[in-house]
Design a protein that fits this description.
Layout (H helix, E strand, L loop, with lengths): L2 H6 L3 H22 L3 H18 L10 H22 L8 H4 L11 H19 L3 H12 L4 H8 L3 H38 L1
Helix pairs in contact: 2-3, 2-4, 3-4, 6-9, 7-9, 8-9
Length: about 200
């Protein structure tokens, strides 16, 4: 089973391996397209959220895993540039939200775009609720493409602790995202009931 197939199956260690394997590639693509480091970090985060959600579409017959990840990264970066060119200065949606509304293929209807927007916002907010150590380790792993060993070395932290922070951080983020989605679904059902009365 490939790394992306394991990610699609919900294997947490596979997602960590995916970040280790492709983080450098995604970072280098983002740095070429983004005007500053902060923007590149946001772009890398968006790309890996998209890879996480799109892993089930990977087909080894159509190309390698690195090609699949690079294609997602390029699409996200191109869409990011296009949105900046079209985005009005006044009343704009926050960059974290707008940059997460991306079709990784095909044309989406407004309902699908809203769902993507809500999912990306939930992921971004979930990451903000992690402990400072989890955030720091995930940032170095996802956004800077550092291996677990390099993170341990740069933070002077035991390798096992780094792996634990990544694993627990990702599990907690997934749980928070699921809770936010459940709350959103309940709220949506409540509004539908009110409208039908």
């Amino acid at each position: 089973m490939s790394v992306l197939q394991r990610v699609a199956a919900g294997d947490q260690s596979a997602f960590e391996e995916c970040i280790d394997r492709f983080g450098g590639l995604v970072w280098s693509l983002a740095r070429r397209q983004c005007r500053d480091r902060s923007e590149a970090e946001d772009a890398v985060q968006d790309v890996f959220i998209s890879v996480w959600r799109s892993a089930g579409r990977y087909d080894a017959r159509l190309g390698s895993e690195s090609t699949f990840v690079a294609t997602i990264a390029r699409r996200r970066l191109i869409d990011r540039i296009r949105r900046k060119q079209r985005r009005p200065e006044q009343g704009q949606v926050s960059p974290e939200i707008s940059e997460a509304i991306v079709a990784d293929g095909g044309v989406e209807g407004s309902g699908e775009r809203i769902e993507r927007d809500e999912a990306a916002l939930a992921a971004h907010e979930a990451l903000r609720e992690l402990s400072p150590d989890q955030q720091r380790v995930l940032r170095l792993s996802i956004m800077h493409g550092l291996s677990h060993e390099k993170i341990a070395e740069s933070l002077d932290m035991p390798l096992g602790t780094v792996k634990t922070h990544i694993r627990r951080g990702m599990l907690k983020a997934r749980k928070l995202i699921a809770e936010r989605k459940a709350a959103s679904d309940e709220s949506s059902i409540g509004r539908d009931v009110e409208v039908s009365r």
